Give the backbone structure.
Amino acid sequence: MSDNIKITKPTGKLGVLMPGLGAVATTFISGVSAIKKGIAHPYGSLTQMGTIRLGKRTDKRVPMIKDFVELAGLNDLVFGGWDIFTDNVYTAALKAGVLNKELLDKVKDDIESITPWKAVFDQNYVKKLTGENVKKAETKYDYAQMLIEDIQKFKKEYNLDRMVMIWCASTEIFMKPDPVHETIESFEKAMKENHPAIAPSMIYAYASIASGVPFANGAPNLTVDIPAMIEFAREREVPIGGKDFKTGQTLMKTIIAPGLKARLIGLNGWFSTNILGNRDGEVLDDPESFKTKEESKLGVLHYILQPDVYPDLYKNLYHKVRINYYPPRGDNKEGWDNIDIFGWLGYSMQIKIDFLCRDSILAAPIVLDLALFLDLAQRAGMKGIQEWLSFYFKSPMCAPELYPEHDLFIQLMKLKNTLRYIKGEDLITHLGLEYYD
Ligand SMILES: NC(=O)c1ccc[n+]([C@@H]2O[C@H](COP(=O)([O-])OP(=O)(O)OC[C@H]3O[C@@H](n4cnc5c(N)ncnc54)[C@H](O)[C@@H]3O)[C@@H](O)[C@H]2O)c1
């Protein structure tokens, strides 16, 4: 088979830039170090453990994804990031309380040297946080230039071949698209005028794209999901993706809801509530940040269940999502779902889920996969929105005329077919009639 798309080889080092060195980022960085040392396994990561079927089922060709497409290796990754706190990755990971001290001590030498650069931060956009490690400049455009300098310095210092940026910082307040988000010209003008519609996350995204660095958004903020950034990414030939890592309760929703719909089981209500006590929980305790998260979580069921197409089954669905900040739990959140369903002749049933979840344990492999796949996309000449990476997001970005695909299994098929496509392999449709000819 010949590749459909020419992919340049992943030679040299890949820099992974992260705004926000909190629970998710430090669990990711420490985890990669532990895996490299052979003291832990990359469970949850498709790039490290996933396989892909090629050709017919009878062909028995099922390579590992990492052997099928050339991805950067874990030894090639170099980490850097910004935070409003000065803690290095070892200290921040200890404070985040996700990984135990015993494990962190084993990787301390690797992670202690990673200290955050000064952040671009404005408390108007994350009400619950204050920190000292922040840049000072006149305009939002100046801040972007400072970030671009940080990126260039990082590249030079570690002699990096390529870079990617993954937003792992806090959820910002809810923002609606604004006319200044329409074009890159209006966006740049607004940055120079310190317009309130330009959030810090957008300044990072701008700096990333301007530097030719792929960008993914792990939080539900608008960030790159605006016409100006999408156009800018296409113009600079940079792949982008978002929004909001798909973990925890929403992951469960996108596993269960497609199954119920497949069997035409009706839904009257889906009530989801969580308790969590990490810094993310504290930030989400602010109603304005919570609204950003709520929008991201609520969309999922609507798109999967299609109440317009199946009004008898889903028109009256009452969907509620609550997040409660409860410090004793730290990062080990508990999520309860009560699902009121009905079947044959309208008889009601209930499903209860009690998910004792570790959010950052679910998020860390997503950061790894996104870093490696975004780098692959760039080496394959793919630019703009990478819809094939929807698998990793609660609110997947897609072309304006499309609705987002939320069904985890369709998302996985889309991802694997994209890999088959770029490698010139036949797409798998699961038709299978040929086995019975
Ligand atoms: N953990 C998950 O499963 C999960 C799932 C989906 C989305 N997310 C999102 O990922 C993000 C990170 O989650 P977390 O649990 O690591 O949170 P966290 O609070 O532990 O870490 C976020 C870090 O970002 C820093 N920060 C805030 N604003 C910043 C800025 N402008 N520049 C640089 N740093 C900044 C904070 O100081 C903090 O250290 C959050 O937005 C969260 O909503 C997490």
